[in-house]
Write a structure and sequence with these properties.
This protein is an alpha+beta fold. The protein is 50% helix and 15% strand. It has 2 domains: 28-139 and 312-379, D-Maltodextrin-Binding Protein, domain 2, CATH 3.40.190; 149-311 and 385-429, Periplasmic binding protein-like II (D-Maltodextrin-Binding Protein, domain 2). The strands form 4 sheets. Strands 2-1-3-13-6-14 form a 6-stranded mixed sheet, sandwiched between helices. A 4-stranded mixed sheet has the order 8-11-7-12. α9 (201-212) crosses α10 (230-244), α9 (201-212) crosses α18 and α18 runs antiparallel to α19 (411-429). The longest helix is centred in the N-terminal third of the chain and has 26 residues, at 2-27. It binds alpha-D-glucopyranose.
Length: 430
């Protein structure tokens, strides 16, 4: 009898404990983190999140986004416009951070950062001033910095007696024609140069590298936008000729070539030169890659009178103004931008950390010797205009430059109309 009573009491307590645990779970604060990228990058984020959860007891839900920056932006804009508290934390492209700041969608981070003493000089200051401070307030921190690079087949240049990677676009064409001509005899899919020409943001990054290396670019004279200039026309003409005249870039350049398509093409051993961001390096060295140990990295070529230019890219972490767990979100931001995690981003993904101190790290330099030279490339990388309406200007350029690549418009006609349309956007926001 006594035993039955004891059992009843035990069961009663068990029920109470289970109910209490249920309530606690319901109230448990969860940070929602929105991030996109290549499949290996998303896997990496999941590993990091598990480590963070174990260390802090804070739960993080991951919202997976695509790789394409335009799609990632659209996804976030929908939640932020409707003032949703989810996602709490997200990565933002340097290209559209100004839009988010001007829309007042980002929580100020100074109070948190002050307490955790993130002083000047920890991150790339030039980049911080460009992108992470808005009207004097800290609104984000750089997770990694991107700059366009030229990847080349070391083994092939050597085989054909070429001593160094090309310094000018003209040299790139010469080397490509020579080597492509010979390799085509056995591999009809082989091309000299693969780069991002599909109609999306990456095309504008590529355009700037051609145009600014010819002393052109997206420039302003007061409130007048300058796109239809001789330097830009020459640059867009060259982009088209790589496909149509020299035929060293495949026709798929303007239909499908984004970062991942370009990387895969090169990795199959089907190209001599590749324009891509730093993330491609560690994937090229992967054991499944057909170009493992055969790749070199160089600065991008330039026009005869200009100099090499990399477009400044990269992703920054910020907290939504509508988040109801800003304190916990900051813990996650602090974790992602800590020395150890930034070092892992470099070692495991080949990304270029937003923190400057990691560039001198012995392990990092041992594994990624090209890092020593890259710091300089990033410090001098060419930013896209930091305007709240930049993505609208970019959308116009994407459309018209892509039409030139497809042979539907001449460079002159395309830039004339692009400039007119872009000017209307400038007037609207002036
Ligand atoms: C990379 C860059 C980003 C750029 C995008 C274009 O993700 O980091 O800044 O806008 O590529 O595709």
């Amino acid at each position: 009898m006594k035993c039955v009573r004891l059992c009843q009491i035990l069961v009663f307590f068990l029920i109470i404990i289970t109910l209490l645990a249920g309530c606690a779970r319901k109230d448990e604060k969860v940070v929602t983190f929105s991030v996109g990228g290549a499949p290996n990058e998303l896997e990496f984020w999941e590993v990091l999140i598990t480590q963070f959860e174990d260390q802090t007891g804070i739960k993080v839900d991951i919202l997976r986004q695509p790789t394409d920056t335009d799609q990632r932006r659209q996804g976030l804009v929908i939640s932020l416009k409707s003032k949703k508290s989810n996602p709490d934390v997200f990565l933002m492209d340097v290209a559209w951070i100004a839009q988010f700041a001007a829309s007042n969608w980002l929580a100020g981070l100074d109070d948190y950062a002050g307490e955790d003493s993130i002083g000047r000089g920890v991150f790339f200051e030039k980049v911080m001033d460009l992108a992470d401070r808005y009207k004097g307030a800290l609104i984000a921190l750089p997770v990694y910095i991107d700059g366009g690079l030229l990847y080349y087949r070391k083994d092939l240049l050597e085989k054909y007696g070429i001593k160094a990677p090309p310094e000018t676009w003209k040299e790139l064409i010469e080397y490509s024609l020579r080597i492509q001509g010979d390799i085509r005899k056995t591999n009809p899919d082989f091309y000299g140069f693969v780069w991002q020409g599909a109609q999306y943001e990456g095309l504008v990054c590529n355009f700037l590298e051609f145009a600014v290396s010819n002393e052109g670019g997206i420039n302003f004279e007061g409130d007048k936008i300058l796109l239809n200039t001789p330097e830009n026309i020459e640059a867009v003409k060259l982009m088209n000729e790589l496909i149509t005249k020299y035929k060293i870039s495949p026709p798929s350049t303007f239909t499908e070539m984004k970062e991942e398509e370009v990387r895969a093409y090169f990795e199959l051993g089907n190209a001599l030169f590749e324009r891509n961001w730093p993330y491609a390096w560690s994937l090229h060295q992967h054991q499944d890659s057909l170009v493992r140990d055969k790749v070199g990295i160089a600065k991008l070529p330039h026009f005869k009178s200009g100099k090499s230019v990399s477009t400044l890219g990269g992703w920054h972490i910020g907290i939504s103004k509508y988040s109801d767990v800003k304190g916990l979100s900051w813990e996650f931001v602090k974790f992602v931008t800590s020395y150890n995690i930034q070092k892992r981003l470099a070692m495991e993904l080949g990304w270029n950390p937003g923190r400057v101190d990691v560039y001198g790290d012995r392990d990092v330099l041992g594994k990624l010797p090209h890092f020593a030279g890259l710091r300089n490339v990033f410090e001098n990388a060419h930013p896209r205009p930091l305007l709240p309406y930049y993505t609208q200007i970019s959308e116009v350029l994407q459309r018209y430059i892509n039409a030139v690549l497809a042979g539907a418009l001449s460079p002159e006609a395309a830039l004339l109309v692009a400039e007119k349309e872009a000017q209307k956007i400038v007037e609207r926001y002036k």
